[in-house]
């Protein structure tokens, strides 16, 4: 057997092939395929789908024009006025603090077996008198306890109570609201 120099044998073990210079060919082929696919998609959208959308737009414009000719101008004006009034009414009601706060309060705080028949509001003291009917006296007591625990009220006083037919109870309650009840936060 031939004897080798130990340093040469050690150097042969750690010899590494020199790396090739340049881009790896697989990455380049993938990039080219991706680029060609992107061009294909772009051309399809630009020339195919865009022309379809343009034709559809023209068709819709002619349909709208034909529809506008079917409706006489007086009806169009009436519809626009009605829509405008409805939109303005919605804006006013959304910003109307009194009815918005009162109705929201009553909706959230009313028990299921209670309904209201009449209401009157005195602006000077911030009091609201509500007349209503409860299915039972227990339902009225439950309703009063809900009003007593409501943070929106200074006081809730039962001013009148009458028993009606079939265990129903008619009542009148006077609310006095807190001073900040009708103030809504700034938008």
Give a structural overview:
The chain is α+β, with helices and mostly antiparallel strands and 187 residues long. It has a domain of 82 residues: General secretion pathway protein M, EpsM (Gyrase A, domain 2). A four-stranded antiparallel sheet has the order 1-2-4-3. Strand 1 and strand 2 form a beta hairpin. The mean pLDDT is 82.
List keywords for this structure.
20% strand; Gyrase A, domain 2; elongated; 187 residues; four-stranded antiparallel beta sheet; alpha+beta; 5 helices
Secondary-structure blueprint:
Blueprint: H1 6-13, H2 25-70, H3 73-95, H4 97-109, E1 114-122, E2 127-134, H5 137-148, E3 153-163, E4 169-177
Antiparallel strand pairs: 1-2, 2-4, 3-4
Q: Biggest sheet: strands, sense, closure?
A: 4 strands, antiparallel
What is the general shape? elongated
CATH level 1 class label of one domain: Alpha Beta
Distance between the termini: 97 Å
Please state the average pLDDT score: 82
Sum this structure up briefly.
By secondary structure, the protein is an alpha+beta fold. The protein has helices at 6-13, 25-70, 73-95, 97-109, 137-148, and strands at residues 114-122, 127-134, 153-163, 169-177.
